[in-house]
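Lab channel / #folding
Pinned by the channel admin:
"Please post every new chain as: sequence first, then the structure tokens as a reply. Keep commentary short and put observations after the output so the thread stays searchable."

First post following the new format, from NK:
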Amino acid sequence: MIEKVILKINPNAKFTVSENNINDYEIEWLENTTPISKADIQAQLPIVEFEMALDELRVKRNKLLADTDFHALSDQTLSPEMSAYRQALRDITNGITTKEQIDGIIWPTKPIA
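Reply from TO:
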């Protein structure tokens, strides 16, 4: 995760990290990359954690939507329950601003086809 934080701050940074432990790591800055302070890296950690969790949420949501795509084909009649389920999946990221909210997501129940 340290690598992702560094690249978020400076996408062109060249470096190596000896440990990917949040509390104990050493960074070697390469090719004249301007060092980023550990304080700046620590400050960005929650943001990167949130972005990674949101990406994972979207991957799961997209898979669940894809699993029901056949219900929405033009030659199928989408039941109101399936329509509501698919809309709930599409809306699941609305208003999410913290990793804690993501961790607390309650997924809608897929209706019986």
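NK: The mean pLDDT is 91.
TO: also worth noting, The first strand starts at residue 15 and ends at 17.
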